[in-house]
Design goal:
The complex is a heterodimer of chains A (780) and B (153). Chain A contains 19 helices and 28 strands. With 780 residues, chain A is of the alpha+beta class. Chain A folds into four domains: 31-139 and 202-290, Aldehyde oxidase/xanthine dehydrogenase, a/b hammerhead (Aldehyde Oxidoreductase, domain 3, Alpha-Beta Complex); 141-193 and 293-415, Aldehyde oxidase/xanthine dehydrogenase, molybdopterin binding domain (Aldehyde Oxidoreductase, domain 4), CATH 3.30.365; 423-464 and 634-780, Aldehyde oxidase/xanthine dehydrogenase, molybdopterin binding domain (Aldehyde Oxidoreductase, domain 4, 2-Layer Sandwich); 483-628, 2-Layer Sandwich (Aldehyde Oxidoreductase, domain 4). Chain A is globular and about 85 Å long. Chain B starts with a strand and ends with a helix. In chain B, a hairpin with a 2-residue loop joins strand 3 and strand 4. With 153 residues, chain B is α+β, with helices and mostly antiparallel strands. A five-stranded mixed β-sheet of chain B has the order 2-1-5-3-4, sandwiched between helices. Chain B is globular. Chain B has five helices and five strands; from the N terminus they run ββαβββαααα. Helix content of chain B is 32%, strand content 15%. The chains are: A alpha+beta (780), B alpha+beta (153). The interface between A and B is large, with 58 and 58 residues.
Chain lengths: 780, 153
């Protein structure tokens, strides 16, 4: 096997440009004659726009134009759509408030853009934006999630600010199981609002060619084809074939760059309107206000157990905050990515979940790393740990008693998923050994002797990744298919150019996908180039989110490579005067079985393009594509254990150790996978201990900068201890499951289970800030 | 106003606005886009460059303060085939993912190693890099890379 093939710790080729300052991010792109866009944003959480007087701004130095929502509407620019239709339990469709790219009649969250200034320089655009005089009629905002349905109606025709009231599972069976339970554990908690904060802010550079009516839009998107599809089909910016969307190097996404936002829409439109290239880059303050936020649930959850500690049923009621409008995939997050995961790793036979999703006058909430699955894991794993404490059973033992067993797969859960494979106890036992679980009481004694508290917490999470079988997703309300495209183009000299509809914004696909194709075709790693992120270079793609890239996009490349090999065998058979069925392909060589006749991959590639001796019924060339539609979700799972030490004097929680044992199925590049886990854990620990997006009662975002929103820094975290177990995915050709979100999914529950263990309290709100911890200790 | 400074060993004479920031000069006038802007409150460190032998956040330095200064950006640190040990270590230890914080992180890390005078452990690296935000790596591999590079600088 090649030392740069599947399973090898290949160094990333993209690093060479990043470590030398030669990355090319959207804001690095400057076009001749470009003007700059600055958005005028609402200072109010809810207000009617009475008049906008832009005359002073229009007359300011360097101003090319000032445009409002009415200008876009007059030009036929439509509202930004939500791509997933969820139905309420009564069968009615979810309520969708129109979201014009620039607000027209009302503004509904602080930071919502309602006008844009285009000027010769950024400074001139900023100065002019401050001159836009707007007369607002302030309206009473809805800020509190708990009181959202009782507040004033935000959107016309949407009663009680309720988008939908969704349920999943068998309520009667759950009620019956609770009636005979020996023990019920109940928790009520919030899943705190998070602000994604990729370090690269969102940006767009748009240009329009009037003679050809073609747009080119460079933007920070995780899925440029979806951006193009939405801007063409729904927003009416331009037909798809006249709109090229390029996502160059993108500096992190974590979900927040999946969505189609007002800013790149308006910037692209303005490029046509002003006949100038238009550039917009968010500053961090704008990012805090206008990027889609994550999480923000209020939940009541109950677990029923029998006297032996067997889980009988689970009942979950959640209110999910959608913010002021439905962002691109917002509706799917607290439903199909949340309720369906509530079985966790356990045989709980009956589960019922109700989710009421509501609008508030806050920034839209949508998918953020994990997207629904961290919230589900938090519910399940906080319940299980609490039940163990309440019933006096070791939390590891209670989990063992209830795990789905390896011989029970495929396993159909009561919440609509069929897990294909897994071995949950294997991950648990490995993690217990790594943390030295048996030694914990002694470590706790040492801490207590020093006046500290010490706690240990588990999180045995599961996630559904590799979104998703298209027909199933569309049946459940998805507006697009969820396959992925891949093209393997063999060049005449035998090098290979790979095109993938997945998008890399830190995941290292240029390396991983080259490993896959190099391994499969037996060509040197250096001879495989990976192209992504440009609708002008690849035909279609659904992009990267939900840990789907290798499971779906990588599978498409395997399928395309299979077609290359099949055609190569026909070419080789003809040249070697044999039958295709007698030709084997291995390690880059086509060989006729039981003979010494063979051709290299390069020789066959050359023959395909210089077809001197070629099958008559075969077209020349050697380039194949595949659209791979997954047969099922993949189900990464694992066991995370956190160990914390708390200083009762200050309330400071120190994360002492974090062990993660994950089952991602087969692993293409262990180095990259470990890096993904590290980053996910950091974000999960951030949610548990540091991060919280807070609006005050008046609807102002009080955590609107890095000085107020506590991002995890190097000295907040320990080094992580990560390991894997492997049960290969049964339904994709690589046996992979996906690794991008596991850390963020597993970590919050593990850390909070450890913190509550240290404090000996039933529950504590996230983030477990020193003040909250100190107060909890004083109250105890 | 006129500004004279040397960036990556090249002397420049520029006409700049009095309120221009060093990072704007570096990215705009000089086209050195390896230095990034990740925030507007001097909190993220993506814009860190070396100025007169010290790491500075170039979003917090007025261009005028860089008069006659010698500035090194990520582009001046080393190129493929002739990389600085810190650049090599970042790749070898997978200390970057999206790459956006990387230039500032590398410049800060070099400064940290220089100032540490051979006394650097994990805790010191974590404390020393607390002014640079990374959202991708969880810092685990960055710490490994810095400790590895420290032995080779």
């Amino acid at each position: 096997m090649s030392d740069q093939g599947i399973g090898q710790r290949v160094k990333r080729r993209e690093d060479v440009r990043f470590i030398t300052g030669k990355g090319r991010y959207t804001d690095d792109i400057n076009l001749p004659g470009q003007a700059y866009a600055v958005f005028v944003r609402s200072p109010h959480p809810r207000a009617r726009i009475k008049t906008i007087d832009a005359s002073a701004a229009r007359n300011a130095p360097g101003v090319v134009g000032v445009f409002t929502g009415k200008d876009l509407a007059a030009d036929g620019i439509g509202a930004l759509p939500c791509g997933w239709l969820v139905k309420s339990k009564d069968g009615s469709d979810m309520k969708v408030p129109p979201r014009p790219p620039l607000a027209i009649e009302t503004v509904n969250f602080v930071g919502e853009p309602y006008a844009v200034v285009i000027a010769e320089t950024l400074g001139q655009a900023r100065a002019a934006a401050a001159l836009v005089e707007t007369d607002f009629e302030e309206l009473e905002p809805v800020v509190s999630l708990a009181e959202a349905t009782a507040g004033p109606q935000i959107h016309e025709g949407i009663e009680a600010n309720r988008c939908y009231d969704w349920e999943l599972g068998d309520q009667a069976a759950v009620d019956a199981a609770f009636a005979k339970a020996a023990h019920v554990t109940k928790l009520e908690f919030a899943n705190n609002r998070l602000i994604p904060n990729a370090i690269e802010p969102r940006a767009a550079v748009a240009t329009y060619s009037a003679p050809t009516e073609e747009f080119t839009l460079y933007t920070t998107s995780q899925n440029p084809h979806l951006e193009r599809l939405i801007l063409a089909a729904f927003v009416n910016l331009a037909p798809e074939h006249k709109l090229r969307v390029i996502s160059p190097d993108v500096g992190g996404g974590f979900g927040s760059k999946i969505f189609v936002y007002p800013e790149e829409t308006a910037a692209a439109w303005a490029a046509r309107r002003t006949n100038r290239p238009v550039k917009w880059t968010a500053d961090r303050s704008e990012a805090f206000l206008s990027d889609a936020h994550g999480r923000d649930h209020l939940t009541t959850a109950e677990l029923a157990l029998d006297a032996a500690g067997t889980f009988l049923a689970m009942r979950v009621r959640t209110r999910a905050n959608l913010g002021a409008y439905l962002s691109t995939f917002a509706s799917s997050v607290p439903t199909y990515l949340y309720g369906t995961l509530l079985a966790g790793q356990y045989r709980t036979p009956a589960i019922h979940v109700e989710v009421e999703a509501v609008f508030t006058n806050t920034a839209p909430v949508d998918a953020y790393r994990g997207a629904g699955r961290p919230e589900a894991t938090y519910v399940v794993e906080r319940l299980v740990e609490t039940a163990a404490r309440e019933t006096g059973v070791d939390p590891a033992e209670l989990r063992r008693r209830n795990f789905i067993q390896p011989d029970q797969f495929p396993y159909e859960t009561p919440v609509a998923l069929v897990y294909d494979t897994g071995d949950y106890q294997a991950s648990l036992e490995k993690a217990l050994k790594q943390i030295d679980y048996a030694g914990f009481p002694a470590r706790r004694k040492v801490s207590e002797a020093a006046g500290k508290r010490r706690g240990l917490g588990f999180s045995c999470y599961i996630e559904a990744c590799g979104l998703a079988p298209s027909q199933l997703a569309i049946q459940l309300g998805a507006g697009v298919g969820l396959y992925e495209s891949g093209e393997v183009r063999v060049n005449p000299t035998g090098s290979v150019t790979v095109f993938t509809g997945s998008h890399s914004h830190g995941q290292g696909h240029e390396t991983t996908f080259a490993q896959i194709v190099s391994d499969k075709l037996g060509v040197p790693f250096e001879s495989v180039e990976v192209v992504h992120g440009d609708t002008g270079r690849l035909e279609f793609g659904l992009g990267t989110y939900g840990s789907r890239s290798v499971a779906v996009g990588g599978s498409a490349l395997i399928k395309a490579s299979d077609k290359i090999i099949a055609k190569g065998k026909r070419i080789a058979a003809h040249m070697l005067e044999s039958a295709p069925d007698d030709v084997d392909f291995d390690e880059g060589v086509f060989a006729v079985r039981k003979t010494n006749k063979s051709l290299t991959f390069g020789e066959v590639a050359f023959a395909a393009y210089v077809p001197a001796n070629f099958p008559e019924d075969l077209e020349p060339g050697l380039s194949e594509k595949s659209f791979y539609d997954p047969k099922n979700f993949t189900f990464p799972a694992g066991c995370h254990i956190a160990e914390v030490e708390v200083d009762p004097e200050t309330g400071v929680v120190v994360l002492v150790r974090f062990v993660a044992v994950d089952d991602f199925g087969e692993v293409i590049n262990p180095m990259i996978v470990e890096g993904q886990v590290h980053g996910g854990i950091a974000q999960g620990v951030g949610q548990a201990l540091l991060e919280h997006g807070i609006y005050d009662e008046s609807g102002q975002l009080v955590t609107g900068s890095f000085m107020d929103y506590c991002m995890p820094r190097a000295d907040d975290l320990p080094s992580f201890e990560v390991d894997t177990t492997v049960t290969p995915c049964t339904h994709n050709p690589l046996g992979v499951k996906g690794c991008g979100e596991a850390g963020a999914i597993g970590a919050p529950a593990a850390v909070m289970n450890a913190v509550t263990d240290a404090l000996r309290v039933k529950d504590l709100a996230m983030p477990a800030s020193p003040e909250r911890v100190w107060r909890a200790l004083q109250a105890a | 106003m006129k500004l004279s400074l040397t960036v990556n060993e090249t002397a420049h004479e520029l006409e700049v606005a009095p309120n221009a920031l060093l990072v704007e000069i570096i990215r705009g006038d000089l086209g050195l886009t390896g230095t990034h802007v990740g925030c507007d409150t001097s909190q993220c460190g993506a814009c860190t460059v070396e100025m007169d032998g010290r790491a500075v956040k170039s979003c917090t330095v007025l261009a005028g303060q860089a008069q006659d200064a010698r500035v090194t950006t990520i582009e001046g640190l080393g190129a493929p085939g002739n990389l600085h040990p810190m650049q090599t270590a970042f790749q070898a230890h997978h200390a970057l993912q999206c790459g956006f914080c990387t230039p500032g992180m590398i410049i800060s890390a070099i400064d940290l190693v220089k100032r540490a005078d051979g006394r650097l452990d994990e805790a010191a690296v974590r404390e020393g890099l607390a002014g640079n935000l990374c959202r991708c790596t969880g810092y685990h591999n960055i710490v490994e890379a810095v400790l590895a590079a420290a032995g080779q600088m």
